[in-house]
């Protein structure tokens, strides 16, 4: 991934957050880059502007760099992806009825669940 890339998938603008969960995984200690855990943000993307088939986004081996997790019911507003030292940096912004949340994570991989 060179430079910055906009949008996970085709764009999740206005997808609604349905759940946020952190999961620890059993992993192979001998693997080159094992998946130790993931942060999953569940989405109802029926009302998303572009990518209506995504039900969740998983960030593997995720570390929160700054910000806070979105609340259930918040809407995905925008995201930006970049790469730094072999890791993916994802900056996301969510909005609620009266709040706006910004979250930046560093992870080894990102997966869109459909």
Tell me which oligomeric state these chains represent.
single chain
Mean pLDDT: 91
Radius of gyration: 14 Å
Q: Main sheet?
A: 5 strands, antiparallel
Global morphology: globular
Helix content estimate: under 10%
Strand content: over 45%
In N-to-C order, the SSE pattern is EEEEEEEEE
Strand arrangement, major sheet: 1-6-7-8-5
pLDDT < 50 runs, ≥5 residues: none
Q: How far apart are the termini?
A: 22 Å
Supply the number of helical segments: 0
- Secondary-structure-derived class: mainly beta
Number of strands: 9
Which features does this protein show?
114 residues; mainly beta; five-stranded antiparallel beta sheet; four-stranded antiparallel beta sheet; 9 strands; 54% strand; globular
Summarize the structure.
The protein is mainly β and 114 residues long. It has strands at 4-6, 16-24, 37-44, 56-60, 63-67, 75-84, 87-95, 100-107, 109-113.
Question: What features would you describe in this structure?
Answer:
- There is one protein chain.
- With 114 residues, this protein is mainly beta.
- The chain is built from no helices and nine strands.
- It has strands spanning 4-6, 16-24, 37-44, 56-60, 63-67, 75-84, 87-95, 100-107, 109-113.
- The strands form two sheets. The chain has a five-stranded antiparallel sheet with strand order 1-6-7-8-5, with no helix packed on it. The chain has a four-stranded antiparallel sheet with strand order 2-3-4-9, with no helix packed on it.
- Strand 6 (75-84) and strand 7 form a beta hairpin.
- The mean pLDDT is 91.
